[in-house]
Every structure is written in C-alpha cells, then in structure tokens.
Write a structure and sequence with these properties.
Elements: E1 12-13, E2 24-27, E3 30-33, H1 36-57, H2 59-67, H3 72-82, E4 91-92, E5 97-99, E6 102-104, E7 109-110, H4 114-117, H5 152-166, E8 173-175, E9 196-198
Antiparallel strand pairs: 1-2, 2-3, 4-7, 5-6, 8-9
Helix pairs in contact: 1-3, 1-5, 3-5
C-alpha cells in the first residue's frame, strides 16, 4: 500500500459521465472521487505494470535494458507509446470543423483515441513492435497542446525510478498464474495485478 491507501495494480474503476475529473475510483480502502494525485498514481501504476509486462513478453529488449539501465528512459517512452495507460480522452468541439472529410459541429463531444494514434504507422514504423531503439518521444500518451498532462514529468520520473529498481530483477522472474486480468475500463489500460515469481 502507498501513503494514499491504494494498492498498486489492485484498483477498480467505475464508469464516469462528465470526464476524468468526475471519475469515481473504488480503491481497496473504499470509494473516493478521483483527484489529480490519485489519477496520476493510477496512470503511473499502469505505465510501470505495462512496461514490466512488455519486457517479459519481449526478451531481447529486456536483456538490453537490464545490461544498460541508462536505457530506462527509452523504455518509459516506448511503453507510453506502445501500451499507454490512458487510451481515450473526451473533448468538446469549440467551433465547427472538418476532419478527414467528416464535419464535426461546434459543441459535439469527440473522443480521440490516443492508443490508436500511438500506433499510427505514418508516425511510428512497425507500430505493433515493442522497440527500445525507436524515437518514441512523439507519442500522445500525455495529450497535446493546452491539454498536455501537467504531471507528465513527474510520471516519467516515477516510472524511471521504479523501473530502474525492477528491471535488474526481471531476467530472473516469470509471470505467475493465469494471464493477468485487465482493469475493467475503456479509458484506462493496465493490469489489475501482475504477479511474478523467481524463474
């Protein structure tokens, strides 16, 4: 448990209506309205868990980063691109606009799919390949422009510190039990729990 009483990778999400700031998050200690600190922690857990899962599924990148921890920032960026914890956001069109031949009237709610944008082959060749050599900094995991995540630098730092501690242990670990259960959410992508044991 961390200081907020949230168990990493053991978080349940409830549907929301008006946006992420109104999301209801039921945590192990009870229910609480999401606030920026809790939201940031949940996203960080997702990045860390998604990175560990990706490394265990891709032995060569795991060997490379385990040999050279200076590659952990590349690991964080490629994980954010490859398997971002936030897959979709909601926005309201402030004016009439046409995108890809589709008219979007002012006031319409649109749902940009960040996970899909991060797999766009025009921006990321071979987008379904987990590749630490990739220049992944152009991903949209933290949004863009005025909606760019204010906690992006902190999330990167937290993920880097956690992964620098975890990565050296991973070559001697393997997942335990059934395939990991996903968090039941169309908004957040991460595993509810990812258990490891010595290989």
């Amino acid at each position: 448990m961390n200081g907020l009483g949230v168990r990493a990778m053991d978080v349940e999400y409830e549907p929301f209506s008006a946006g992420w700031s109104d999301a209801i998050i039921a945590v192990a200690s009870g229910s609480a309205r999401a606030n920026p600190i809790e939201s940031s922690l949940l996203e960080d857990f997702g990045v860390i868990g998604n990175a560990v899962h990706a490394l265990l599924a891709h032995p060569e990148p795991l060997r490379r980063v385990a040999r050279d921890l200076a590659r952990v920032p590349d690991l964080v960026e490629e994980t954010l691109r490859f398997d971002a914890p936030i897959q979709i956001v909601f926005r309201t069109a402030t004016r009439d606009v046409e995108l890809a031949g589709v008219r979007i009237p002012q006031g319409s709610v649109v749902a940009p799919l960040l996970g899909s944008a991060n797999r766009d082959e025009r921006a990321f060749p071979e987008p379904d390949r987990f590749d630490l050599e990739r220049r992944a900094r152009g991903h949209l995991a933290f949004g863009l422009g005025v909606h760019f995540c204010l906690g992006a630098a902190l999330a990167r730092l937290e993920a880097r510190v956690a992964l620098e501690a975890l990565v050296p242990e991973l070559p001697r670990c393997e997942p335990v039990g059934d395939p990991p259960e996903w968090v039941d959410s169309f908004l957040v992508r991460g595993r509810r729990r990812l258990e490891l044991a010595p290989a």
